[in-house]
Write a structure and sequence with these properties.
The protein is 42% helix and 19% strand. By secondary structure, the chain is of the alpha+beta class.
Length: 320
């Protein structure tokens, strides 16, 4: 048989080979595509597991943008919540409950935590809100640690710790010095009232349900997320109807780090509120109804347009 045949290949055989080669190429392309998709999905799942299991360093609050805080107000346990979140008249506020106050000033934690000290701080809040709030910050930190059953909670408070007061410059006074000064003022005032026959101005009980401003909450509460944990935000308007005023929905898109941090928080804090603070002001709050592994949030039924817009701007205008 000659090495090179002189016979001409029939046309139908050539066509069959073309079809075969095309099918073979298509199968190879499909195999490569499927392999890439599978690798991408598997790689994504591995990446997600790593992110969701990662232990992150604690975040510091962002005073100039958005800070998301934990409110420690588990629903169904109202009598023992540390904070109470109240939403009414288009406003959101966070109150320190009587239980929270007791955690801040336990009677068995030493002289710095006595009822008298709590009474002094309450009095300072009535005459100088910024100083009173600044004095309360370390006590709230210690109280939160006790509430969460963390060790060495009382170490958060010491007489020689400096107290930073908003708007004040220069070297800050220590907690002990401020308490002594206001204690002396209280003593003098009570003495003057007694000499005038008006009795004492001191109250045996302290009124609780104290509203804690956002700039104080940031410095005392657990920080869940900050602006850097979000990639973008969107504002949607829900038109007014005969039964309801105009409402706003804010969609917050999480970064992988933000998704991981929130997932870990939601696992341990179901049914607790999270509070959104922008530039020191409480904007709104929402409740973690279940463990969430999501890439975005929708915050619905915001009634104040300025609050909704401030929340969106804090993310979209954020510059790391």
């Amino acid at each position: 048989m000659p090495l090179f045949s002189n016979e001409v290949t029939p046309e139908y055989q050539a066509a069959e080979r073309v079809v075969f080669m095309r099918e073979r190429g298509t199968r190879a392309l499909l195999l490569v595509t499927v392999s890439v998709i599978v690798l991408w999905l598997v790689g994504g799942q591995i990446r997600d597991r790593i992110l969701l299991q990662k232990t992150w360093e604690p975040l510091t609050y962002d005073a100039q943008n958005l800070t998301v805080l934990g409110a420690l107000d588990r629903r169904g346990d109202y009598d023992h919540n540390f904070f109470k979140v109240v939403q009414s008249n288009k406003m959101t506020r966070v109150e320190l409950t009587a239980t929270g106050w007791d955690y801040c000033f336990p009677t068995d934690a030493g002289p710095l935590f006595s009822d008298q000290i709590g009474d002094i701080i309450k009095g300072v809040q009535n005459i100088d809100g910024k100083t009173g709030d600044a004095l309360l910050v370390p006590y709230i930190r210690a109280g939160i640690d006790r509430y969460r059953q963390l060790p060495n909670a009382s170490a958060k408070v010491s007489a020689d710790m400096p107290i930073e007061i908003e708007g004040r410059t220069g070297k800050p006074e220590t907690l002990g010095a401020l308490l002594n000064r206001y204690q002396e003022k209280k003593r003098v005032k009570e003495q003057e009232a007694k000499e005038e026959g008006g009795g004492t101005s001191s109250s045996a009980t302290v009124e609780h349900g104290t509203v804690i401003p956002g700039n104080i909450l940031m410095r005392a509460c657990p920080v869940l997320l900050t602006s850097k944990c979000f990639s973008s935000a969107e504002l949607t308007i829900q038109p007014a109807s005969a039964l309801a005023d105009e409402m706003y929905t804010v969609r917050l898109n999480l970064t992988p780090e933000g998704r991981s941090r929130f997932y870990r928080w939601s696992k341990e804090h179901e049914n607790e509120s999270i509070v959104f603070v922008v530039k020191g002001d409480v904007i709104t709050a929402g409740r973690v109804a279940q463990v969430l592994d999501v890439n975005w949030w929708d915050i619905n039924n915001i009634r104040d347009h300025r609050s909704a817009q401030a929340l969106v701007d804090a993310i979209n205008h954020f510059k790391p």
